[in-house]
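Structural prep section.
Before we set up the soaks we want a predicted structure of the protein with zinc ion in place, mainly to decide which crystallisation condition to try first. Input record follows.
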Amino acid sequence: MHPYNSLNLALHVGDDANVVLQNRKSLKEQLSTASGLPHMAPMFMNQTHGANVFVVDGVTDIEPSADALITQLPGIALCVLVADCIPLLMWDQQVNVIAAVHVGRRGLLNGISAKVVDLMRMMGAQQIQAQIGPSICGLCYEVGEDVYSEVVAQHPSTRSQTALGKPALDLRSGLEELLSTLEVPTEVVPGCTAEDLGLFSFRRDGITGRQAGVIWN
Ligand SMILES: [Zn+2]
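Run finished without errors. Recording the tokens verbatim:
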């Protein structure tokens, strides 16, 4: 439903819950088709821009308060909901460990991505790969001077400016650099949520839906 069209997957943004649940059901069917597993279970989380990591050890309808989900179980699809923040997906094929991480400005500062990489390595991962999905770009993500200084001090590669020369942050560059120092090869899916009208953008629209980054075993 407008302004959530189409395929909004988030229950917390004011959309009709029945429509969202229908959208999630449709995602479940698509996942089952794509994976060839008849009972693929998507798992969502209640994202708080915090650093909590939740290890999924069984299928449940409860959405844990976390910004990262990790699992080694087959038949579970981990979903991260975004509208400008970065959906980060990671996996290691040898030990079948997968992760979905929500990385916004606060997530970049609180170190959640490094925490997930550490945990995956503790679970036996030795060849983690990552994919960064579409998010707001460095030209569009204008911020105030104080926020700019705080983030750039910790992640210099986020330094950016808008077309009009206002301070801005390139969170993708910051995350790419971080993953590179962690020795995790990363593929970046291009696209800016604020510029691409086919994607949800909180910055552009305020009240809007959430798309999902999804990974499964
Ligand atoms: Zn942009």
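Observations: Residues 17-35 form the longest helix (19 residues).
Flagged for discussion at group meeting.
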